[in-house]
Amino acid sequence: MGKYDVINQALEGLKEQGLYNIIRRIDSAVGPWTVVDGKRVLNMCSNNYLGFANHERLKRAALRAVEEYGVGPAAVRSIAGTMSLHEELEKKLAAFKGTEDAVSFQSGFCANLAAIPAVAGKEAAIFTDQLNHASIIDGCRLTKAERVIFPHRDTEALKASLEEHKDKKVKLVITDGVFSMDGDLAPLPELVEAAEAHDALVLVDDAHGEGVLGSHGRGIVDHFELHGRVDMEVGTLSKAFGVVGGYVAGKREIVEYLRQQGRPFLFSSATTPADMAACIAAVEVLEQSDELVRALWDNTRYFKGEMAGLGFDTGASETPITPVMLGEAQLAWDFSKRLFEQGVFAQAIAYPTVPRGRARIRVMLSAGHSKQDLDYALEAFGKVGRELGVR
Fold this sequence. Notes:
The structure is a single chain. This protein has two domains: about 20-50 and about 290-385, Alpha-Beta Complex (Aspartate Aminotransferase, domain 1), CATH 3.90.1150.10; about 55-290, Aspartate Aminotransferase, domain 2 (3-Layer(aba) Sandwich), CATH 3.40.640. It is built from 15 helices and 13 strands. α7 packs parallel to α8 (about 190-195). The protein is of the alpha/beta class.
């Protein structure tokens, strides 16, 4: 048996099960209309909530930063890689989120890999929602802490688990703020109350909440008016902010501890000047106006209402994340291919990203979409739905 046979068999198995992921190529800047695999199509599946990925102000900021600071810091943050731009972004993020401090990382994924193992040692217990993001799952796996997975959004189960583990030296409750596949919200007020009653820390991954929820897109903590009661807000700068990077905002002592012990901070090179400058510009745009956030929600209400009128099931979403539930993986892939033929780029999501039998097209709405764009997408969904017997 050859050393690659197992891998080749696994790849063939994915194809036979309809789970082989077709990775399309982006050939232009990301916007409402994007060139994908050489074809100009309506982009309905990127995380570009506010249109920042090709925003003129962000691009100008990035270009100026390259001229002044070069293309990269060429070091990890703790040795020689911390630039004034990193510190400026962290101060702006802390002020924007209403927290005592913030520290930036290379991605939102890295932020979870830094925060969770650093805070939860072998004497800790972690309480994590069963539908939390893969970066949270991997962050938990890197610890020696006891892990308790509670049913999705089940605060009563969480309370019982916290009581059962009340003698643990450190207790850490972790949840997504907005669950990325279904678009539903964490019951954050109830989770925080449960944590406070048991002297537990709370970490919220707000990747899909920032730029979307709260005043000017400040996120789920602001949305529920829980400032000062959430210990760590993990965020990404690659979705609503349109760039790349991640951060942890929260209590000053926790943030400082992550600068001392967060392994991605200590052992992976710092993000580039262009990235930092563009992110600073994004925060400044949001501080100055909520116009883009309001446009995002206007588009969300319109599109969801029209999809319901067409008879599509969009699940339990409470946010611009709009899952079009289809069930089987092969149907979802076929639906996505037909949409692409109609000029609409909307990727299928199937196992293992979502459970078997829960495959879907995940539509991601943007402030950049015009009503004409949305009507174009609705027409395509209606046509493909009729052709495939969906609705």
